[in-house]
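FAQ: What does the model actually see?

It sees only this:
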Amino acid sequence: MQEAIRIVTPLTEDKARQLKAGDFVLITGTIYTARDAAHKRMVEALAAGENLPVDFKDQIIYYVGPAPAKPGQPIGSAGPTTSGRMDAYTPRILEEGLRGMIGKGYRSPEVVEAMKKYGAVYFAATGGAAALIAKAIKKYEIVAYQDLGPEALARLTVENFPAIVVIDSQGNNFYNEGQQKYRNI
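And it is asked to produce this:
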């Protein structure tokens, strides 16, 4: 097994462009959470000429709707959301400088093209490992859209958050590469 690449946020374009599909990473620093309802609001705000509640330049968004925290913990189970739910909004957020996204599942061709254009990467977090992932989250703070509950825009402080680069900034797709091995058998 390859050794993990350690990433400390912010994730600059140079760092993002060095990552390759299939790389295992451990992320430490600040990442944000947002799901489709928050993405919709952000894209509507941009269309109205408003500023976003967060400067997403060189930041990472984790698509998650966490469970309520147990006493003494910053967050409950925090498994990835299916990323395709954000695809209609993602190219516009990437245009704002977003450098990475964490979720699960496939991305649309439009998102992949925007990733290539803006030098962004898509990471997968392991579905079904929500309680384990939550252990890497040290702080959870709602930043905007509190009325959305678990879908609010929030800031996380993470330490050694495990993920895999699924789609790199060149458009290489680890899902496709992994399947191809078995198609050749």
